[in-house]
Design a protein that fits this description.
The complex is a heterodimer of chains A (699) and B (173). With 699 residues, chain A is an alpha/beta fold. Chain A is 29% helix and 17% strand. With 173 residues, chain B is of the alpha+beta class. The radius of gyration of chain B is 18 Å and the shape is globular. Chain B has two domains: 97 residues, Alpha-Beta Plaits (2-Layer Sandwich), CATH 3.30.70; 57 residues, Alpha-Beta Plaits (2-Layer Sandwich). Classes of the chains: A alpha/beta (699), B alpha+beta (173).
């Protein structure tokens, strides 16, 4: 085949994108030592040969001169951003000594690590867990998927589920935005194809989002009340006998208890209307349409995690699929195996024999604070734990590819907590705001520059492979070499004595039905999808879909979903609820130093309904001040009919407002996390970003 | 039958993600302006709102105003209909930008006109840069015949579903 002149002579490498955690497999074209072109893996179902806008633009990571190039040691005050360059050997020695010191003084559990849940981090997770002995290893789940995960665990016994848009006839999305926050890029085309074949798309969202724009029906709902609508829909479906009787009898547990619960609580559409502002007639009609159109799928995501009632709301929505038989069948909500779709799961890259492992004596913070079902410790609670020393002292913090100062609520409290630590390390590709408060900053390799194996997000089991296509800038190193360096200084070198990366890559895939050679050749491996897994039994206590959850009952929580109001309700002084939306072309705090993306929208904005805007004399494009009881921000207003009155939506609320990171990112737009107080869901631990009331005025 | 080439942008599918703009810049050079622009129009009153997104570039017109008005005769039409500019001849007078109804002509650091080249440096088997990345397949490039077939299929699908299901397409309060 003829090759474009530009690509002639280029070498093609396998990789997967790490701009967001959904890891789309890609091909990287390298010529004269430079990344010149990338494209989605041509025959992977998750990419369909495409990359999203953020991924495409992230080719800039391979060119960005603002990236960290050398290990740094803080010489100024925390937060000042004054560092001096040190050698890797010095950095490893300091880290090893400090970690030893903290372990002796306070115990290994007083070192916490937070990462972005990416592949290579299993290196330092295995190091900290097996060798150092800290049970406190967390990722970004509380800011993202925690509510969805926990609902899936209680209902289906698996951590994840995927919507089969492509084959669905009726799609209902609540606070989930495939067109505004695209994740697995191939799914977008599937959703559009379904629409063009006549599937109906219903979007429930207080904002007229990018997904709502394409919906057949947009249902603006009072923020934080989605659970009431879902429960009223369930009641309509059950009362009118539109549910799948055979399915609930055979494969669901607790249907009758659920039915009685709905009756006893009086969750009628009329009751829901008074709470949600959605007319009872609309709720009934949607319920009927949803139950009688097959296959159908109802799903929710980040919008629900925004409230302290999010977990029950999420369960209520997912139960709609269960009672109508729309689970794990083509065109419905697909369960991704057990526990994460791969059997056996990927191994840790290093091997530590059982008897040589560190003894973990204290419970993790997650367990100690009662989030036993949650996938992760709620990171927003960490500052309080650090400052109060309860349940036990936390003195050391290791952060990798994560920037909680921008991405977690209550910025002021985070700053206080970071200042109170004895020792902190940041591993990143930029000098992020959080890194500015850390003692040692280590330059990481980006996804073009390292080996990696990771599981893909799909219904069928999938494993992805990445190889370095270019060397990292300056002295930057991939995580595996960083951990190796620290481990060697601490006397654990023998576990990291690989001669080539192949050794640990092979460790990771042991027991799986393919070889490393096959994986390298194609760039990914995909197995056969298994449908209707409940026929064989699920990973729940009853082996059925648990509408009545025994796991929740066991920890003393309500096993059936009920509706509670959000924790924060707007009042006279703060009449608006603050919510956030996304731009498809930014990935939270990751991508703001990419000039091409910042050219599209150089700053973020706040959406306000014209009626509200008129009241405060705000015109489109004016700068406004948004004030919460905690703090205030200045931001540009966008007056639009696409938002419910009484609601202010800041788009990309925690992607902008950098004061560190890089020259392109710095000083653009505003970050809303300053305004938000610490709220988390009591069961899933998800950060409740929308529990915030604000007032506005012209700047 | 027409073998003339063209670009179809399906406004029912465009989500204004700007991937086409970025793909264009990544392919044609990070320092050049994107040959594509994505626009948005909003109409209606809450909660009956409609927003339309559209990605615009050179339309490779049948009778391009830019071509007829160029004093340097730098703009020409290839046999397959693709409109191109000869940079050697371009004098940077910007007349083309005054007459183009789509705002397609762009000017880089060399001040000469540049615009969508239908990715003339990509072989036929490769999709155009913008087409390759469009996540919803809103952008399709090809011969007019190929495009007409796809447009027909999509329209029929949408119509058939409206008729068979008597679909209500707007929220009734």
């Amino acid at each position: 085949m003829e090759v474009a002149a530009k690509l002639k002579g280029a070498e093609i490498f396998r990789s997967f994108c790490h701009v967001c955690p959904y890891r789309c497999p890609i091909e990287v074209y390298v010529k004269d030592g430079k990344v010149i072109y990338t494209r989605g893996h041509p025959d992977n179902p998750n990419t369909r040969g495409k990359r999203c806008v953020k991924g495409l633009a992230s080719i800039w990571f391979a060119y960005d001169t603002d990236r960290l190039k050398y290990p740094l040691m803080r010489t100024g005050d925390r937060g000042e951003g004054i560092f001096k360059r040190i050698s890797w050997d010095e950095a490893f020695t300091i880290i090893a000594e400090k970690l030893k010191e903290i372990k002796e003084k306070y115990g290994p559990e007083s070192v916490v690590s937070i990462d972005h849940g990416q592949g290579c981090v299993t290196f330092y997770r295995s190091f900290l867990y097996y060798l150092y002995g800290s049970p406190n290893l967390y990722d970004h789940a509380s800011a993202c998927d925690a509510t969805f995960d926990t609902a899936c665990i209680t209902l289906f016994g698996s951590y994840w589920a995927i919507e089969d848009y492509e084959n669905a006839k009726y799609i209902m999305l609540w606070g989930k935005e495939p067109f505004e926050a695209p994740r697995i890029i191939g799914f977008l085309e599937g959703l559009m194809e379904a629409r063009d074949k006549g599937a109906k798309l219903v979007v429930v969202n207080p904002r007229f989002s990018k997904t709502a724009e394409k919906a057949d029906e947009w249902i603006p709902i009072r923020p934080g009340t989605d659970g009431a609508m879902a429960l009223a829909m369930a009641k309509t479906i059950i009362d009118e006998k539109l549910y799948d009787q055979e399915f609930v009898e055979k494969y669901c547990y607790g249907f009758n208890e659920f039915k009685e619960h709905l009756d006893a609580k009086g969750y009628t559409p009329e009751w829901a209307e008074s709470i949600t502002m959605v007319p009872a007639a609309t709720i009934k009609r949607i319920a009927r349409e949803f139950a009688t159109t097959k296959p159908a799928v109802a799903s929710a995501y980040h919008g629900f995690s925004g409230y302290t009632n999010g977990f029950d709301s999420m369960r209520a929505v997912l139960i709609l699929n269960a009672i109508t038989g729309n689970v794990d069948r083509p065109g419905s909500l697909l369960i991704t195996g057990s526990p994460q779709g791969l059997d056996p799961p990927l191994n840790f890259p290093i091997r530590v024999p059982e008897e040589e492992r560190a003894k973990i004596t204290k419970p993790s913070l997650r367990t100690a604070l009662g989030f036993t079902l949650a996938p992760d410790f709620p990171a927003p609670l960490l500052p309080k734990v650090i400052l109060e020393g309860k349940p036990y002292p936390i003195k050391g913090l290791i952060l990798s590819q994560i920037n909680p100062l921008l991405s977690s609520a209550n910025t002021k409290l985070w700053i206080e907590a970071l200042k109170a630590l004895e020792f902190s390390v940041a591993i990143d590709i930029y000098l992020s705001e959080t890194a500015m408060y850390c003692d040692i900053v280590l330059p990481d390799a980006c996804y073009f520059e390292r080996y990696d194996i990771l599981q893909g997000f799909s219904h069928a089991p999938m494993v992805l492979y990445s190889e370095p296509s270019v060397p990292p800038p300056g002295e930057a190193k991939p995580i595996y070499e960083i951990v190796k360096g620290i481990a060697e200084k601490m006397g654990y070198g023998k576990y990291y004595a690989w001669r080539s990366e192949e050794e640990w890559l092979k460790n990771m895939i042991e027991g799986l039905p393919f070889t490393l050679e096959e994986l390298k050749q194609r760039g990914f491996w995909i197995g056969q999808p298994a449908y209707e897994k409940y026929k064989k039994g699920l990973n729940t206590p009853t082996r059925k879909i648990e509408i009545y959850s025994l796991r929740l009952k066991a920890i003393g929580k309500n096993p059936l979903p009920e509706f509670k109001q959000p924790s924060v309700i707007p009042d006279e002084n703060y009449p608006f609820r603050l919510i956030s939306g996304r731009m498809p072309f930014q990935a939270n705090v990751v991508t703001q130093n990419i000039p091409m993306l910042m050219d599209i929208e150089p700053e973020n904005w706040a959406e306000i309904n014209p009626k509200d805007a008129e009241k405060y004399g705000i015109k489109d494009g004016d700068y406004i001040v948004i004030e919460s009881p905690l703090d205030s921000i200045k931001i540009k207003a966008k007056v639009t009919e696409g938002i419910s009155p009484g609601v202010i939506a800041v788009i990309h609320g925690f992607g902008f407002g950098h004061w560190g990171m890089g020259n392109v990112a710095k000083g653009k737009g505003a970050n809303i996390n300053k305004l938000i107080d610490t709220y988390v869901d009591p069961i899933s631990g998800a950060a409740a970003y929308n529990e915030c009331k604000v007032r506005v005025r012209k700047a | 039958m027409s073998a003339r080439k063209g670009i179809f942008v399906d406004i029912e599918r465009c989500i204004k993600c700007h991937a086409c703009e970025i793909a264009c810049r990544v392919w044609n050079g990070i320092n050049v302006p994107s040959y594509r622009t994505v626009l948005e129009m909003e109409a209606g009153i809450y909660p009956l709102v409609k927003r339309t997104n559209i990605s615009i570039s050179c339309m490779h017109c049948e009778e391009p105003y830019c071509l007829t008005s160029c004093p340097a005769k730098a703009i020409y039409k290839r046999e397959d209909g693709v409109v191109l500019v000869d940079k050697e001849k371009c004098i940077g007078c910007r007349v083309c930008s005054w007459v183009c109804p789509f705002g397609a002509p762009k000017y880089g650091p060399d001040l000469k006109m540049q615009k969508c080249t239908f990715c003339e440096d990509r072989p036929d088997w490769m999709p155009r840069a913008c087409e390759e990345v469009c996540p919803t397949r809103a952008i399709i490039c090809g011969t007019i015949d190929q495009l007409e077939k796809i447009i027909k299929e999509r329209k029929l699908g949408r119509l058939a579903s409206l008729i068979s299901e008597q679909k209500v397409t707007r929220l009734i309060l």
